Amino acid sequence: MTISDLRNAANDSGAPGASGAGTPDASTAVVHGKPNTGKPKAQRTWRSYSVYLGLALIFAYCLAPFYWMLVSSLRRTADIFDNTLLPAPFSIENYVKVFDGSTMFGQALLNSLIVAGTTTAFALLLGVFAAYAISRLNFRFKSLILGVIIATSMFPGISVVVPLLKLFTDLGWINTYQAMIVPSLSFAIPLAVWNLTTFMKALPFDLEEAAMIDGCTKWQAFRKVLLPLAAPGVFTTAILTFIHSWNEFIIALSMINDPKVQTATVAISKFTGATEFQAPFGEQMAAGVIVTVPLVIMVLIFQRRIVEGLTAGASK
Predict the structure, then answer these.
(1) What's the pLDDT score for residue 124?
(2) What's the mean pLDDT when you consider all of the chain?
(3) Which of 36, 155, 194, 297 is deepest in the core (most CB within 10 A)?
(4) Contact call for residues 164 and 183 (beta carbons, < 8 A)
(5) Biggest CA pair distance of the chain
(6) Exposed e or buried b for every residue in 149-164, given b needs 16+ CB within 10 A?
(7) pTM (two decimals)
(8) Helical ranges in 75-177 per DSSP H
(9) How many CB atoms neighbour CB 216 within 10 A?
(10) Is the peptide bond before 87 cis (omega within 30 degrees of 0)?
(11) Residue 287 half-sphere exposure toward CB, CA atoms < 13 A
């Protein structure tokens, strides 16, 4: 054995973990079956609590207005300006007044459902085909066309009210459903095209090619292969489009004067009290809860699909 061999043996014996085969180093020691990260337990606990505290503050900040609207809707008219966290006593008189027939709020809810549902159906129909063409077909100026589609949704709704009012007056569309559906489509279609294009770009082209090799036409490959795979994105786009159309106010307020055709958002703004200058805050709060609750329930039920649709195109 040479001197260099003795030096190597001495170095090996003094190295960490050399006292026994398979002895873990202190930095990778296992405590109760879990690797020791080296961070104090108190520090990890404090960080966990701070994350939960931050989420709780955001949660409270977002839901505080809705909570106060709900509480105010359950107060009596004489107690509407109370500042207590809970109504005392509970009363549903505001909800009874909303549906007593004088406000035609039930018809307004039906009108909102018709307008939002029709807008969503047409936006999805046009958006799916446009997104497929932009994401899967090769033609010139494809990026420019997509940019123009997105640019059309950047105009504020108030900027197009006067031209649309003049146009719809000439067409005889005032106080009709199409006077609300067509302008809503101008904002819903760009949203649908953008979301679906991003989603379809993430789907592999090999699936369509394999389907066409098996005998499918391009239309059959789109209908039987690509469209089912794009279902999460379509579902998410449908929910976002419906919410946008349901909450639309400016166009509906400008184009509709007939209470039989007005939507729920417009009906709430036109609630009147016992006198001309009295604001029925309790009834408005109750109507706001009625309009908001279906959207909240829909999002809570389908939140998993919404998240899947929004994040599906993030990675391949």
Answers:
(1) 93
(2) 81
(3) 194
(4) yes
(5) 110
(6) beeeeeeebeebbeeb
(7) 0.77
(8) 93-98, 105-136, 142-152, 161-171
(9) 16
(10) no
(11) 26
